[in-house]
Amino acid sequence: MRSQPKRTVTTRSMPRAEYGRILNSEACMAEGAEWLARAEPRFAHAVELCGVPPLRRRPDGFAQLLQAIISQQVSTHAARAIWERMVAAGLTEPSAILVADDATLRAPGLSRQKMRYARALADAGIDFEHLREAPDQEVVASLTEVAGIGRWTAEIYAMFSLGRADVFAPGDLALQESARRLFDLTDRPREAALRRMAEKWSPWRSVAAGLLWVYYRAESNREGIA
């Protein structure tokens, strides 16, 4: 495989204070849920029914984003199986991805498109340490420069891997359906409409998402996110 020049994802200079609160304990989740319940009676109903949503923090870094790419458009079971084979094959670091040929990446179950995305991520040179301190908008903008990472993936990363308290992922179908049920809407809100709707839940939009996910699970007996 011919070596390609390494591309570094650019970052934007913005005040670091813009990222606000970090969710790092169950107490943070409880504080956010209490605020939302006071601000919106329907969230109070969700808290009464489902309790405070769990923290669900994940690691940050290359492997977490690679796993997110692998999970796209496949079932949770299939994504888990592919990831386990990637781990067993030692294909969870940028250097390993960049030197692997197509057959090596295909063996765990990557499609041709996901091979391309995995290589793009490995070649991006993302400064993960910098992202830990970067404003929310910069995190999303930087990650979505990489092929295979859309806004949903970037927002989920900011919420779960970086613990940002005021990020929302309105492109998530489970959040859309849960909002329809909880707020008794006629139709499922589209991404733009749900993003506008969530503005009033700031500065605890990530906790609002957590409440909507647990409410979705209670209402439909299905998991809203892996």
Overall spatial form = globular
Quickly count the domains.
2
**CATH architectural group of the largest domain:** Orthogonal Bundle
Order of helices and strands: HHHHHHHHHHHHH
Summarize the structure.
This protein has 226 residues and is an all-alpha fold. It has helices spanning 26-39, 41-50, 62-71, 76-88, 94-99, 102-106, 112-123, 128-131, 136-143, 151-161, 173-182, 191-198, 205-220. It folds into two domains: 35-51 and 166-219, Orthogonal Bundle (Endonuclease Iii, domain 2); 62-161, Hypothetical protein, domain 2 (Endonuclease III, domain 1, Orthogonal Bundle).
Structure notes:
With 226 residues, this protein is mainly alpha-helical. The chain has two domains: 35-51 and 166-219, Endonuclease Iii, domain 2; 62-161, Orthogonal Bundle (Endonuclease III, domain 1), CATH 1.10.340. It contains 13 helices and no strands. Helix 2 (41-50) packs across helix 13 (205-220) and helix 3 packs antiparallel against helix 7.
Task: Explain the layout of strands and helices.
Elements: H1 26-39, H2 41-50, H3 62-71, H4 76-88, H5 94-99, H6 102-106, H7 112-123, H8 128-131, H9 136-143, H10 151-161, H11 173-182, H12 191-198, H13 205-220
Helix pairs in contact: 1-2, 2-13, 3-7, 9-10, 11-13
Question: Notable features of this structure?
Answer:
mainly alpha; Endonuclease III, domain 1; disordered N terminus; 2 domains; 0% strand; Endonuclease Iii, domain 2; 226 residues
